Amino acid sequence: MRGPKGRAQRFQQVIINFKQSRNPKSLAQQVHKVWMTLPANKPVQSSGTGADNFTNYKQIKLLGRGASGTAYSVERQSDKKILVYKKLACLTQKEEEEMQKETTILSGLQHPYIVGFIEAFRHESSFYIVMEYCNGGSLQSYYKDKLKNKEFTTEEEAWKFIFQMASAIGFLHQNKILHRDMKPENILLLEDNTVKLSDFGISKQLQGDIISAGTMCGTELYLSPELTTNAQQSFPADVWGIGLIMREVLTQNTPFEAKAQYQLIQNRVNGVFQLQIDPRRYSQELIYFVNSMCRV
Questions:
Q1: Which residue of the set 79, 145, 181, 192 is catalytic?
Q2: Is 181 a catalytic residue?
Q3: I want to staple 258 with a disulfide (CB 3.0 to 4.6 A). Which of 146, 157, 159, 263 is the partner?
Q4: CA dist., res. 120 & res. 220, Å (int)
Q5: Pair (188, 272) in one structural domain
Q6: Contacts of 22 (CB under 8 A, 6+ apart)
Q7: Tens digit of pLDDT for each residue in 228-286?
Q8: Residue 121 · residue 52 · CB < 8 Å
């Protein structure tokens, strides 16, 4: 069966099986079966070096500042390739250990829908992570631009975003990694709107038979309901994050309205969303599929 309806049914079954089994491999394996024929960009290959290669990069433009550091577009002097590096201040040993943890996770992930890792190094008092440059902005800037221009994401674009995010998350779960910070700002885009999952600063590599993590972390607005109710976060939380991101993209608004934290928690646990996806603009299959992911 082809088209959005057939794809919705196939992915709906993936989510159902995944949530019933809570087996991280089940989602990944089925996602890859469905998407093994997708045309995909080659992942950027990592140099894997830890040497101080600061002089190999020429800073071009400030891309943004965050709580943990600053991002710049840079030109690699050896081949003039445009990349991006995150400059992070290493203030304490614990902070540097966290940065090393992110680097370890990211450097092992070679996937067409995950931002490509190039290298990481320390220069003077800062730590640098060099990555693939995603010149299409983020999914947040994408839908805000649509809103500004009084445009909407098309049905075709929506399915593409879902499939590519699911493929990336499936790959993480197959490797027993929880992303734990799924939000529109962390979904970067190439110029052709290909998805690139980013920001693994609070991701968790699970060991052995462990299938959940109990640390309260993530962005408040996007925290999984299971973290609120069970003080645990497992693989369904990332799937829920995909659904929440798509609700925001399709409604062009944040998912929850809350003037106080307790109200936000209640709305999140009870699935009370600020806006519903417009059935006049999107198919029942798409709406049902997105809504199904927003249940953990």
A1: 181
A2: yes
A3: 263
A4: 29
A5: yes
A6: 211, 234, 235, 236
A7: 655 556 678 888 899 999 999 999 999 887 676 766 777 777 777 889 999 999 999 99
A8: yes
